[in-house]
Amino acid sequence: VGELINTSRSAVGEAVRERDELAIAAIARMEEAAGADYLDVNCGTMLTDEAASMEWLVDTVRKAVSVPLCIDSPDPDVVEAGLSKCEGFQPMVNSITDEKLRWDSVFPLVREYHAKVRGLCLGEGGMPSSTGDRVRGAGSLVEKLEAGGVEVDDIYIDPLIQPISTDTSNGRDVLSAVSEILSAHAGVHTICGLSNISYGLPARRVLNRVFMIQAMTSGMDAYILDPTDRRLMGDLFASNALLGRDRFCRRHTTAYREHLYD
Amino acid sequence: VGELINTSRSAVGEAVRERDELAIAAIARMEEAAGADYLDVNCGTMLTDEAASMEWLVDTVRKAVSVPLCIDSPDPDVVEAGLSKCEGFQPMVNSITDEKLRWDSVFPLVREYHAKVRGLCLGEGGMPSSTGDRVRGAGSLVEKLEAGGVEVDDIYIDPLIQPISTDTSNGRDVLSAVSEILSAHAGVHTICGLSNISYGLPARRVLNRVFMIQAMTSGMDAYILDPTDRRLMGDLFASNALLGRDRFCRRHTTAYREHLYD
């Protein structure tokens, strides 16, 4: 899931404020060309007209690329505004939690628009702080989503990464949680954003990249990332090949030809 | 385990033939400075005087560095020649197998010199071709080594890596074997050489590096590698930090200061 179309990035914020279609289209095309399977669309910094900005953004990105979109907002009205512009492909909702307010406002949208959904391991008890918290949080979410008619293949569980700088077991806890979640819920996907893991440390891109490989090894199969980061994507393709998910290593060989390994 | 002192590398072969102490000392010091915990010493290409070359090599390397050595030869007489020069530290023997001839000739040396030992998952049946082959091979070796008085902490099991180019499941099989071996034999170490995994494919250094991270995630804790490969070592330190094996992330921060992440 490409993460670049986010108004918290200043160039994107400016383009959205000025309704600059060309600037947004350029970023979207860059992400698609780099191999993104979904594009996240977030205009959470547009405090006064987030819903209108979301509708414009979704329309604009759709005109530019053919990959499906991931509608990303804390505001359910904005999520609905985005989803309403997604006819013709299956969108993803970013995100739902097990908190009552969030669940009650977002779940009906996931159903109505037959969306894939990123489910955060987060309930009324707050952020998970152990492997067990994450596994229980995932179990509760998967059960409710399936009971509500969402197919397992449309569920992307996010174990919620916390920085290793605050507790060196935070990385290992997430990896264990991913393994346990996947063995408890066959067919479910797991997903995460990579940057939290390295918060407060130097060489963050190295840590994010290495943690992605570790998470893949534990079974994670989706990431919210910058697909134009060549070294990150190179390691992703190499890792897939090594895990036996790249027939005849063809994608790896293509990545080599595209100079992702320079 | 630093792999550079090997006469199959032409500069090393020439230095050994000419008994060039300075050249060998320079390589050994480079490996030690880069963070190697053991230095492999191999003069297998010196067909006519391998034993004499090994004695000279071990003496020469010991004069240059203080890290212990890993004596590497297919010939038990050469292994003994090397071990006889290792008083003062605990050497490692590279390697033993479950093949009767190899076992009978090498095991007495492991005992006599109280050496750590790299045990290859290889019996009379030949190279392992599945996770199960490796787990059974490891089980047999660990049992015999322990019965013979070798402590588990001195046992380094090598699951024997085969290239993903010949079968894309070869990487995954090794990772599964490592997990299973470690849960069946508490306290045993696992080790591998990295370069076989990428045989026949482009961008071999990328594949070797990513596979190292995958193997670490599965619990492997020793590698035969080039410690002067900065990107490889950078990823090793980052991976350790992410797995919670680097208190306060200090080694990671040092690696950053030493520009391993450039």
| DSSP helix fraction of chain A | 40-55%
Radius of gyration of chain A: 18 Å
Backbone structural class of chain A:
alpha/beta
- Can you count the helices of chain A? 10
Compute the number of strand runs of chain A. 8
Please give the most extensive interface between any two protein chains, plus how many residues each contributes. A-B, 38 and 38 residues
Q: Give a quick account of the main beta sheet of chain A: strands, pairing sense, barrel closure.
A: 8 strands, parallel
Give the CA-CA distance, first to last residue of chain A. 23 Å
Describe this structure in words.
The structure is a homodimer of 262-residue chains. Chain A has helices at residues 10-17, 21-33, 50-64, 76-83, 100-112, 131-147, 170-184, 204-217, 230-242, 250-257, and strands spanning 2-6, 39-42, 69-72, 92-96, 116-120, 155-158, 189-193, 222-224. The first copy, chain A, has 262 residues and is α/β, with parallel strands linked by helices. Chain A has an eight-stranded parallel sheet with strand order 1-2-3-4-5-6-7-8, with helices on one face. Chain A is globular and about 45 Å long. The mean pLDDT of chain A is 96. Chain A binds chain B through residues 164-165, 168-172, 175, 197, 201-203, 206-207, 210-211, 213-214, 216-218, 234-235, 238-239, 241-244, 246-249, 252-253, 255-256, 261, and chain B through 164-165, 168-172, 175, 197, 201-203, 206-207, 210-211, 213-214, 216-218, 234-235, 238-239, 241-244, 246-249, 252-253, 255-256, 261.
